[in-house]
C-alpha cells in the first residue's frame, strides 16, 4: 500500500452568518477586509489624448515633461501618450491629485488633453480618444466601461470598420463578444491582438520613450535684432527649455554654443566654456550677457540657435562646514564661478591653467592647459610622487651659478641643507639629463633649488626658488 503525501492547508475559520456582528469573529476585524485578486491590478495606466497635435517634436516634448511623474512613458503617435502610474500615486495625492498635475502640465504647454485611467494602456488610451475622462481601477469593470465606445477609437483600417458595421458591430463591446477564431479569419490577427490588448489578460511589450541626449533648439525671430539686451531676452525661452531638458536627465553642460543667424553674413558663433557642469538658466544667461558685450555682430540677427552636444552627470555636492578663508575652509563654487566670469569677459585665450605631466624632468613635469574643471580636479591625474619637496617657482631656464672650491655661490656662499636627489631621465627623446639636486640657502635665508651636472664640466645651476 502506497501513501500519498497531502500538503497541509491552514484551518479555515468557521462560516459565520453575514448578519452576525463583527464581535463574533474579533480576529477577522483585526485583519481587516482582504482584497480580492480580481479587484486590484498590478498596473495602472494613464492615457492622454492630445487633440490637434500633429508635430512629433511637440509629442516628444510633452513626453519629456511627463517623465517628471513616471519613468514609464510610451509614445502613441500622432496624438497620444500612455503612462504607467501605479507607483506614482502616493507621491501625487492619489488618482485625483495626479489627474490635476498631468492636465496642468499639458495646459502649461498650451495643449488641450483628455485623460483616462485604466488597468491596460490601450484601454486608457481608447477611453481618452472617445473623450471620456474615466477612472477604471477594477479590472472586472473594464469591459463594461469600454463596451459602449465606438469602433473608431481603435483606429482600425477603414475597410475593416465598414465591414464590421455592415454586420451590425458598431461598438467595442460588440466586437469583444464575437468568436475569436472567426474574427481572426475575417478581419485579421492584428485586429484580434488589439482586442486582446484591451484586457489585462495579455501584456504586449511597449517601447518606453527615451529623451535625446543632445540639446538643439532654434528660434526664428519676428524681426531682426541687433541690440544685445533684446537678443538676451530672445534667448531666455531657449535657456528655460535647456534647464528643463537637463533637469529631466539630471545632467549638466560644460560647453554651450549659441549661433546668431544673419540674412547675408555668415553665422556668428558664441562659445561658452564652463568650469563645472551647469544646468540653471539664470547663471548661463549672466555669462552670455558678459560675453555678448565683447561680441561684434556683422549684421542684425534673424534667428537664434542654442546647442549643447555633450551632457555630463550632475551630482549634488554638500557645502563645507567652514566658509572660504576660515580655518579649515576651502574654495567652493566661487572658484569655478570666477573662472567662468573671467573667461566670458577676457576671452578664451586669456585664461590658462597648469596640468601635471607624468615625468621626472622638472621642466617637463607640467604644461600650460585649459583651466581644469571641478570634475578633473576631483579625479586627479596619475603623476609620480617626487622624492623631495619641489619649489612652486621654477625658472624658465636654469641659471648658471658661480663656483668656488667646488661649491656654488650666489651673492655669497650657498649652504647646502639637503641630501642630493639624483634625476637621470629623457634618453629616449634626446632631452636626457643627469643632475644632482640640492636645497640650498643664501646669505639672506632664501631657500633655493640648485643642481650640479653629473657630466663634465660639472657646473652648478639655479633652477627654482621656494616660497
Concise synopsis of the structure shown:
Helix content is 28%, strand content 25%. It has 467 residues and is α+β, with helices and mostly antiparallel strands.
Q: How many distinct domains? A: 3
Q: Work out the number of β strands.
A: 19
The CATH architecture of the largest domain can be given as: 2-Layer Sandwich
Low-confidence parts, pLDDT < 50 over ≥5 residues?
1-40, 374-381
Please identify the top-level CATH class of the largest domain: Alpha Beta
Helix content: 25-40%
Q: Average the pLDDT over all residues and give the rounded result.
A: 82
CATH topology of the largest domain: Alpha-Beta Plaits
Description:
Strand 17 and strand 18 (447-453) form a beta hairpin. The model is unreliable at 1-40 and 374-381 (pLDDT under 50). The chain is of the alpha+beta class and 467 residues long. Strands 12, 15, 16, 17, 18 and 19 form a six-stranded antiparallel beta sheet that branches. The longest helix is centred in the middle third of the chain and has 22 residues, at 228-249. It is elongated, with a radius of gyration of 37 Å. Helices cover 28% and strands 25% of the residues. Helix 8 (180-187) crosses helix 9 and helix 11 runs parallel beside helix 12 (333-346). It has three domains: 45-197, 2-Layer Sandwich (Alpha-Beta Plaits); 213-315 and 332-378, Dna Ligase, domain 1, CATH 3.30.1490.100; 393-465, no CATH class.
